[in-house]
Structure formats: structure tokens, C-alpha cells
Design brief:
binds adenosine-5'-diphosphate, five-stranded antiparallel sheet, binds magnesium ion, single chain, 2 domains, PI3K/PI4K catalytic domain-containing protein, alpha+beta, two-stranded antiparallel sheet, Phosphorylase Kinase, domain 1, about 40% helix
């Protein structure tokens, strides 16, 4: 989406006073999330052919490429979050979301979403990992141009380093406008009404179904605000980008209710995703998120919420399977 369009979305959110305050997640107010109009019950359908790619694919470069990287130049590119585009001295490029006053733990949402996606075998969530940058190095890399943002928002540790999430740069990132009326007119019948899905759209249809379940589990309130779904992932997959509105405690109730309603209306799911989700319970779920700087990445309270929403997702899907049969509901491979 064009920058101008993004500003319009942001301006609209601000005008409606619905945007969450950019501070501690627990205090955040929920933004408006549009929910599609009600749909009739879906027709029973045959399972999709087994040509939908669901295997995990490596996105861009890996963590090792940034092992000794120091910022050479950087600039602020965020719309709602504090995020910098950094070019490193070793030639690598990445987006970096620091710990900031707009939400001290929001950067963790990017890391947690990637780790959850990886544990579920999804190719959709871009790599994001913990990465510290010295505030002074960042200030130099921005040539002082973002000094006020750094002073007012970015939170440094006692040693001057700043925690954050590094997301290797996705070249030529394109967006899938999932939230627009035009796009909805296309994908809603595929997922809500059992409509025929053109061969070329099978991967996208399966990915939107998985996105709806994934975002309910992570509690991401920000997916439907525009420009938060990439279109050019590996193998033609959608990219679930911008996950720092996820894993809040508590999850803003308005968007959560709307996400639950979206899942209720979804009648086709990916079999491999649902199977992986069933296996990811108890300890396996907490292990999936791992640590950051020697501490659990997510707090016990956030983890408890994730476990509860995972159970909700599975119970909604299981009810559909009981009503319509596994072949119809686990439609995608
Ligand atoms: N890893 C990345 N690769 C390419 N572009 C990115 C990446 N991360 C962010 N961007 C660009 O920066 C914009 C803002 O990042 P985003 O994570 O969506 O933060 P915000 O919360 O401000 O919307 C995105 O819309 C995208 O254009
Ligand atoms: Mg965004």
C-alpha cells in the first residue's frame, strides 16, 4: 500500500479515537476492526487437491548473517510503531523494532509470532529475532535525524544498548489488501460459503484461513488496519507481517470478538495447520516461544492467554468437523 494510503488509514484511526494508545499493551485501547457481513451456511465441498504448498520455507536470510553486524545507516519508517530501516556495515539490511515507550514489550510480538509460526510449520511469518543495538550507534547511523524519536521513545538498558526485534528486509515487499471491500468480495465466498477457488488462488485462500486462526491465537488487533499482509512470500504464500500488535495482556476485547466472529464464519481450514496446532499443547506451546536475554520471551499471563485462545480455535474447528465432516472442514492440505 502506498505511504499516502497508510497515512489515511492512520488518520482515520486517530480521528475515530479508536487506535490503541502506544504504551504498555495491558493498557491499550482496541482499534476498530471491520467484520464482514453475515454469510449463509457454506455448502459441503470436496477437499482441495493436494497442490497447496504448506511446507515451511526459509524467508530471506538467517540470523547468522547479522552476527557481527553494526548499523551503518538507519532511518525511521514506522507508521504506528517505532521501527527503523537499518543498513548494516556488512551489507545486510533489516527492519528493527526497538523497545519503546509506545509499548515496552511490543517488539516481542514480532519474535513470538515468528517462533509460533515456525513451531506450526507455517511459511508465512517473516523471521524476527532478538537484536540489541547501542543507542549511540543508532543515533550515529541516523546522522542525528531521528534524535527526538530516539530521545523521547526508544528505551535503552543501563549499558546504553536497546533491546529489539530484527526482521531481515523483504525486498520489493508487496501487500495483499485483505481488508478491502474488493478483496473481501473475492476471498470471503471461498472461505465462508464453499465457493469454487480458482487454481491460482488456492495458496492464498488457505493462507487467509490460517491467518484468521493464527491472529486469534496471537490476539493481533492490528491485522485489518491496512498494509499488514505481504503478498510476495516464498512459493506464492502470504506474509503475516507486522505482529507487534499481538500478544498483549489482555488482548483488546473489541478486536478479539471480531476475530472470533471471523473464525466462526470460516468453514475451510488447512489440515496440516490444524494437525500442527493440536500437537502444540502444554509444554510444547511454552517451549515454542523460548527465551530472550535469559528470560522467557512471554510472561506467564500472556502464555496463559495464548493457550486459552488456542483451545478456543480448536473447539470452534472441532464443532464444525462434528457438524460437516473432516473432509469438508479440513479442506486445504
Ligand atoms: N522486514 C521488512 N522488509 C521490508 N519492508 C518492511 C519490513 N518491515 C517493515 N517494512 C516496511 O515498513 C512499514 C512499517 O512497518 P510495520 O511493521 O508495518 O510497522 P507499523 O506498525 O508502523 O505499521 C511496512 O508497511 C513496510 O512497508
Ligand atoms: Mg504496519
Amino acid at each position: 500500500m502506498k505511504r499516502a494510503a497508510l497515512w489515511m488509514v492512520l488518520a482515520a484511526l486517530v480521528a475515530c479515537n479508536k487506535a490503541p494508545r502506544q504504551e504498555e499493551p495491558a493498557k491499550a485501547e482496541a482499534p476498530k476492526v471491520e467484520t464482514p457481513v453475515a454469510a449463509p451456511a457454506p455448502a459441503a465441498s470436496d477437499a482441495a487437491p493436494a497442490n497447496v504448498e504448506t511446507s515451511a520455507a526459509k524467508l530471506v536470510v538467517d540470523e547468522a548473517a547479522f552476527a557481527d553486524a553494526t548499523p551503518a545507516s538507519a532511518k525511521s519508517i514506522g507508521h504506528t510503531s517505532v521501527v527503523f530501516k537499518i543498513d548494516f556495515s556488512n551489507g545486510q539490511r533489516a527492519a528493527w523494532k526497538p523497545r519503546s515507550k509506545r509499548g515496552k514489550v511490543r517488539y516481542k510480538g514480532e519474535i513470538a509470532a515468528y517462533r509460533l509460526g515456525r513451531a506450526l510449520g507455517l511459511p508465512n511469518v517473516p523471521l524476527a529475532f532478538p537484536f540489541h543495538v547501542a543507542k549511540e550507534d543508532l543515533n550515529k547511523a541516523t546522522k542525528g535525524k531521528d534524535a527526538s524519536l530516539l530521545d523521547e521513545e526508544v528505551i535503552a538498558e543501563a549499558d546504553g544498548s536497546v533491546r529489539g526485534a530484527l526482521i531481515p528486509w523483504i525486498p520489493k515487499l508487496e501487500f495483499y489488501p485483505v481488508e478491502t471491500e474488493k478483496s473481501r468480495a473475492e476471498w470471503e465466498p471461498w472461505l465462508f460459503k464453499g465457493a469454487e477457488i480458482p487454481e491460482k488462488d488456492r495458496i492464498i485462500a488457505a493462507d487467509i484461513s490460517t491467518l484468521i486462526a493464527f491472529d486469534l491465537i496471537t490476539g493481533n488487533w492490528d491485522r485489518w488496519s491496512g498494509a499488514n499482509l505481504g503478498a510476495n512470500g516464498p512459493g506464492g504464500h502470504l506474509l503475516f507481517i507486522d505482529n507487534d500488535g499481538a500478544f498483549f495482556d489482555p488482548v483488546p476485547p473489541g478486536p478479539l470478538a471480531k476475530q472470533t466472529a471471523l473464525l466462526q464464519r470460516t468453514e475451510r481450514f488447512s489440515r496440516s495447520f490444524v494437525e500442527a496446532l493440536r500437537k502444540l499443547d502444554g509444554d510444547a506451546l511454552s517451549r515454542a516461544f523460548g527465551d530472550e536475554s535469559g528470560e522467557p520471551l512471554l510472561s506467564a499471563a500472556v502464555l496463559k492467554g495464548v493457550a486459552a485462545r488456542r483451545a478456543t480455535v480448536l473447539s470452534i474447528i472441532d464443532k464444525k468437523i462434528a457438524e460437516r465432516g473432516e473432509a469438508a472442514v479440513l479442506f486445504f492440505p
